[in-house]
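Memo to structure team: turn this sequence into C-alpha cells by end of day. - J.P.
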Amino acid sequence: MIALAGTPVIETERLVLRAPEAGDWPAFHGFLASDRGQFVRTGEYDLSNTWRGFCHLIGHWVVRGFGMFVYHAKGDATPLGAAGPWFPETWPEREIGWSVWNSDAEGKGLAHEAASAALDFAYRSLGWRTAVSYVAEGNARSRALALRLGAVVDPDAPSIGTPPCLVFRHPAPDSRRTA
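Reply from structure team:
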C-alpha cells in the first residue's frame, strides 16, 4: 500500500497518530455513511462527495505539508478517527479538527487524547500561535471536547458553514493546559 512519505508519526499514551492512507477508506466511508457523520458531511450522504472528502484528507498533507492525522490504538491499526491541523483554502483561520469514525472509540477520551496531541503538534512543530475549532451548533460531543481542550467560543471570529459553526478559540501555546 502506498503511504505519504516524510509525514510525522505521533505517539501518545494509548494512540498512534499518522498520516491518512488508502487503507483508511472503509473506515472513513463507513463513518460518513452513518448518522454519526452528519456533522462532517454536508447534507445527505453522497458517495461522490465522501470520496472527494477522503482525497481531501490525504491531499491536504501534500498541498499544505500538514493535515489530519488518523489515529488508532497502539497495537491495533484499526482507524478510530482523525484529528489534526486543518486549513483548506476557504477557511478563515487554521483549525484543529477531529472526528471519531468508530463508535467503539466513543466515550473513552481517545478523541481528546488525539486532538490534544494534534494541537501540541500545531503549536510546537508548525509554529502556530492560535487555532480554532469549528463546531456545528448541534454537535454536543464536539462542543464538550472543545471545552475540555480549554477552548472558548469566540463570537467575533469568522465562521464557516451554513448555518455557521460555533468558533472555539484554543488557548495560546504558552497558556495551554494539557489535562
